[in-house]
TrEMBL record:
The Alanine dehydrogenase/pyridine nucleotide transhydrogenase N-terminal domain, residue ranges: 4-137
Principal EC category: oxidoreductase
Protein name, per record: Alanine dehydrogenase
One of the GO BP terms on file: L-alanine catabolic process
Keywords attached to this entry: NAD, Nucleotide-binding, Oxidoreductase
Enzyme Commission (EC) number: 1.4.1.1
Taxonomic lineage of the native organism: Bacteria, Pseudomonadati, Bacteroidota, Cytophagia, Cytophagales
Residues holding substrate: R15, K75
Catalytic site positions: H96 (proton donor/acceptor), D270 (proton donor/acceptor)
Family statement: Belongs to the AlaDH/PNT family.
Gene3D superfamilies membership: NAD(P)-binding Rossmann-like Domain
Positions with a binding annotation for NAD(+): S134, D198, R203, S220, V239, L240, V267, A268, V269, D270, V298, A299, N300, M301
Keyword Signal attributed: no
Domain spans labelled Alanine dehydrogenase/pyridine nucleotide transhydrogenase NAD(H)-binding: 149-297
Amino acid sequence: MIIGVPKEIKNNENRVALTPGGAQELSKHGHEVYIQTTAGEGSGFMDEEYVEAGAQILPDIESVYAKAEMIMKVKEPIEPEYKLIREDQLVFTYFHFASYEPLTRAMIDNKSVCLAYETVERPDKSLPLLVPMSEVAGRMSIQEGAKYLEKPLKGRGILLGGVPGVRPAKVLILGGGVVGTNAAKMAAGMGADVTIMDLNLQRLRYLDDIMPANVNTFMSNEYNIRELISTHDLIVGAVLIPGAKAPHLITRDMLKDMRPGTVLVDVAVDQGGCIETCKPTTHQDPTYIIDDVLHYCVANMPGAVPYTSTLALTNATLPFAIQLANKGWVKACQDNRDLALGLNIIKGDVVYDAVAEAFDLPHVPFEKYLGNAH
């Protein structure tokens, strides 16, 4: 198979979908790998390293899309890329369709095959290609939140861990999944007073067992959220419903109950956000203030630590990429149900239910394209 890796063009996105090591593995399996020049530089990988690994360098993004049968990316295609994607071309990346209708419509129109990292799902409901970036984003949410609590950056002026004789900051984490667990670990490690909320009592029991003493668990509901937001300094939105738009757990009217300088970090922003006043921002201009409450809503948080993020992501995606390249997407998805669940749009048909539901589009089961394999 011919695999193409374009340079990411989203604002301040420095990750790359394939490392030189990944390019070498695909080349060893007999596949042709084409990398857009400088695509890996933001993550610390030079063109020469890709060439030594058996890849070929192409001069521009148009050449990569024109050449490849499978495109591997990190972030969803943005508008300049829509017209470059061809009918039947396989695009393997994060899409987050349910949060952005123009992207969904564009991929329907170009009749490509869209396989989304974020909905590849194991039988235990874990999301193996979302986990590495959720781990990075969860840890970063505390790192960034601690920074923006500083007064010069318009925060409350409170040190996350406090000092002897002074209380530490109070951190509220909405969601006890991978993002929330990693956020809680970081906040606890920095000495904050942490509360983590979730709807799942079994999950809360597990977190209560594994977390240090400065992490408390609390059942998530509107009453409890309203009770806690007035006393917490940093609030992290860490809620995910696979493939679907995130629910609004913090509504606009709740901001008035927060203290001036409270910091909100919405990690769910690329799925629409679980904070109603959240809108996507960039690393270049990461924050804004509404009702004296500071919002940090960067849609590609792991892009700020691209070396770590690229290695973490490609460790997880490469085995699936090899399956797709070796077998073609139809056979690979017939043989691997986890991978089949990553199919979101196929040749103009929406085959992922939550995406169809988000925009009131017809839903076609992916089995239509896979025959009777399932």
